Here is the input.
Amino acid sequence: MNGTQLLLFLFPTFFKNHNETKKKKNVASLQKTGNGAKTQPNGTLDHRTVPPMGLTGRQFIDAATASIDEIEAYYSTVASRPLLPDISPGYLRDLLPGQAPAKGEPWPEIQRDIERVVMPGMTHWQHPKFMAFFPASSSYPAILGELWSAALTVPAFNWICSPAVTELETVVLDWLAQILGLPASFLSKGEGGGVIQGSASEAIVTCMVAARERYIKRQLGRQGITEPEEFEDKAYELRSKLVALGSDHTHSSTKKGAIIAGTRFRSVEALRSDAFALKGENLRAKIEELTAQGLHPYYLTVCLGTTNTAAVDDFASIAEVAKDYPDIWIHCDAAYAGSALVLPEYHHISQQMAMVDSFDMSMHKWLLVNFDCSCLFIQKRRDLTDALTITPAYLRNQYTDSGLVTDYRDWQIPMGRRFRALKIWFVLRTWGVEGLQRHIEHSMNIGSLFANLMCSRLDLFEITTPPAFALTVFTVKPLPKRTRALSDDDGTNGADPRRPWPDAPVPSPLQADEGLRHAANQLTEEVYTLIEQRKEFFLTSTVLGDVYAIRVVSGNAFADEHHIRQAFATIVSTTEEVLAKHRDA
Ligand SMILES: *Cc1c(COP(=O)(O)O)cnc(C)c1O
Here is the structure.
């Protein structure tokens, strides 16, 4: 019995009252003095000045409640915040001291700095006028999943580290594979299964490494090379000849993956006339060309929804080529558009995924789960684990050795992993499959509205590629060549004032000769730059071959019909402003 216990034993009521007073003091301390001292002395060795969890339980409840209130206020008013920050680079350093505080600070002071320090430098991705890149979705159930994940904090690299983390992940990814209509071979009950990765890029490089190892093993296996040292020598020789492939519209993460995997990358042309979809014949020609050079194509990224234009590669013709090259690993990058597969009308695409070794879509883009949550599905999980398994003695355990459990560390690059399945679970249960379908439909409907509005002004705009998956890509049409001498042209004489020379046909930038295309690019870029400077909407621009284009994405869950109409009106008025300037010039 220590001194305190002895006193407690002798004077129980005094101590009870004393503890009550102390509790009250702690609440007050959150407001006044900060984190306060520890509530329980822990022997003479303990000189810590802050409780083990940073705050007392009571302080945590108050701080968390206040934070949740502020988060709710943030979401309910995000539309009225400035969408883009209005600060100069390096703004933040000036708002903070040069060193970390020597003594802990009270929570309310920390919380205040969200508004003072952080908010001025935020680009609000959930703002309904954020129509740039692709969306990064957020939702309350997913936020609660993050909160629980942080609370439980288990870097569950193998099953025994917390069986629930592994088992929930397996179950919710099976659910998701079914919702997306993927072939049954991607489910965990067979030889496949799903795993949560941090990002689509991470999924790609992980598969690329597995592809590399599988390719080498098969090639050397056929040559009957088994002696370890010889195998290693030959493997390194072969590695120097490996080539990863993707179309020239494949996301840059494939090229980056090849850098990390230490192999070459070559792109296959995806033509404008094919709406930037990779075609089997072009792929075959590239494979033959590389093979003739003594190189070994071992990996291919195909796209369901490219970043530029949401193009979908021609899976049917690629599948024909794949039959002739069974050693090439095919990965489908469906980072954004994969979410659309929740709609049964797209399940014919899902069924085509039987031709790929791996398929990845990011719920953190369009499917209401907060970053990070990229869902990678694989038909033969052994392909991944054979390449990535390393079992040092300290990771050995009876469960892993029995082979009855999944150790997700063998499906990924890092060892530790977060409990991310919770946020998927919470989202799937909150929305239900039908709720997810209505969410995607909503984005698609307002996306179609935008495309239709664009079509109502084909005098001003040209849509460059078929609008798809809530993305429309367009250019501004160039001014027509003058058909009359300048002196004859008063520009407004009973004519449509929107166009300077109404009797001239409006040329299409996509078909235009080089000079006109250059002019169209310049106009489009001017329109884009003005919209960018005015910061009412956030759009992104892109370059498609030699065409400068603007992308508008309506996949943001907060975007509604009237935001789309406003975006269109802003684009029209900005375009007219730019055209008028050029007409007057
Ligand atoms: C966004 C995107 C990526 C990259 O996603 P990360 O998760 O940020 O790595 C890759 N491919 C496509 C098609 C994308 O749209």
Summary: The radius of gyration is 29 Å.
